[in-house]
């Protein structure tokens, strides 16, 4: 694995937005903010407090207009992602950062934002299981894995998969040993109390209930993806 010279300072940043799922951001933050010789920045459309899907408020460091070029851009997901799928200020920011970043790292439905910015065409990618069927509208090949690397694009599946993805990113930046040290510090040793963590293992009644709960946002995401594909391939 060709990691980056440890003497090279890295700038890592996360895009945050209203109604995101904070764990898509805070899970990876736990590891990425501890990358040796790096600075972590929290970036939003403006510098006002950002309220996540469940009401947690986060104060960004910078606006997208003032953000420097990043080595790694983290793009989380959550229901609020859908409101940004036509926001050219946000999509332009993602595209601009991606043009020079070492890696773009999406978590959950942050992959759809990356898709709307044109970053998934011809790429393998993953996202939250409820949105996997949306990925092809953005030119991506869906892969049912927790973390998928395709060139400079790294995508993680739903919510907690962002922790796995962040450790993979750390390993690419500073090597496996540093990633392992951070994993140990975080005591990240999942031994889940139930087996309902994926559609493949969840009891049928649980899968039905969660699928129905997500039906409205899933329908919106499919319609947005269909419109995007139509514009790109009329």
From TrEMBL:
<protein>
    <submittedName>
        <fullName>DJ-1/PfpI family protein</fullName>
    </submittedName>
</protein>
<dbReference type="InterPro" id="IPR052158">
    <property type="entry name" value="INH-QAR"/>
</dbReference>
<feature type="domain" description="DJ-1/PfpI">
    <location>
        <begin position="15"/>
        <end position="164"/>
    </location>
</feature>
<dbReference type="InterPro" id="IPR002818">
    <property type="entry name" value="DJ-1/PfpI"/>
</dbReference>
<dbReference type="InterPro" id="IPR029062">
    <property type="entry name" value="Class_I_gatase-like"/>
</dbReference>
<dbReference type="Pfam" id="PF01965">
    <property type="entry name" value="DJ-1_PfpI"/>
</dbReference>
